[in-house]
Design goal:
Keywords: Amino-acid transport, ATP-binding, Nucleotide-binding, Transport. It comes from Bosea minatitlanensis. The chain has a domain of 164 residues: P-loop containing nucleotide triphosphate hydrolases (Rossmann fold), CATH 3.40.50. It is 37% helix and 26% strand. The protein is built from ten helices and ten strands. The longest helix has 18 residues. The radius of gyration is 17 Å and the shape is globular.
Length: 235
């Protein structure tokens, strides 16, 4: 579904991504882990088009994604749930969710999408008229994920969904992400600093370090790797 080859991104004189290659098959759950500054969020921004690469290619379902303007990429079936959630604080929960169904194909399925979002996150149905900026961090994360699902995506990209949340809330969010993946067979690309949770959930994992792919393997290969255990899992 997603094929990235030799992708490089520079900010001024700094190299954020250095010839990164990643594959995501349809229906896979792929996790990308690594420390701060490794280039994880930059990778997502390049896929979404909010930053331009200095080299390399990105193909989505065989199509040159770099030739597609950023505002048209959601209509291809790509939903990006950004880090820090980035809800619209002065809009209601329901209005935030509906913003995810902006593309015509998603708008046509809005009512069904809303039912599915409320099944996943019942609290959002109770808070539909509440301003999103007044919600807790965990509830805002639910809104952000729901907004992504409202796009009826084929590829759901989640950037640091655990950031700033209490452990119990993180567990619930990861449970819901796994539920989405299994029940809807949705392709998921996850960026996450909490390596243990991300790798336990995924089919395939990549480790980014200083803008490069340092390791790749299935979840058991990575969880059992001694260097990864010491560097990221605290074992």
């Amino acid at each position: 579904m997603l094929r990235i080859r030799e992708l490089s991104v520079h900010y001024g004189g700094l190299c954020a991504l250095d010839k990164v290659s990643i594959d995501v098959e349809a229906g896979q759950f792929v996790a990308i882990v690594g420390p701060n500054g490794a280039g994880k969020t930059t990778l997502f921004k390049a896929i979404s088009g909010t930053v331009g690469p200095s080299g390399g290619t990105i193909e989505y379902k065989g199509r040159d994604l770099l030739a597609v303007p950023p505002h048209q990429r959601p209509a291809l079936g790509i939903a990006h749930v950004p880090e820090h959630r980035q809800v619209f604080p002065s809009m209601t929960v329901l209005e935030n969710l509906q913003m995810g169904a902006y593309a015509p194909a998603a708008a046509a399925q809005w009512k069904r999408s809303l039912e599915l979002i409320y099944e996943l996150f019942p609290i959002l149905a109770e808070r539909g008229t509440q301003l999103a900026g007044t919600l807790s961090g965990g509830q805002q994360q639910m809104v952000a994920i729901g907004r992504g699902l409202a796009n009826v995506p084929e590829l759901l990209m989640l950037d640091e969904p655990s950031m700033g949340l209490a452990p119990a809330v993180v567990d619930m969010i990861f449970d819901r992400i796994q539920q989405i993946h299994k029940e809807r067979e949705l392709t998921i690309l996850l960026v996450e600093q909490r390596a243990a949770e991300a790798l336990e959930s995924c089919d395939l994992g990549y480790v980014l370090e200083t803008g490069r792919v340092a390791m790749v393997g299935d979840n058991q290969q990575l969880l059992n790797d001694k260097r990864l255990q010491q560097s990221y899992l605290g074992l």
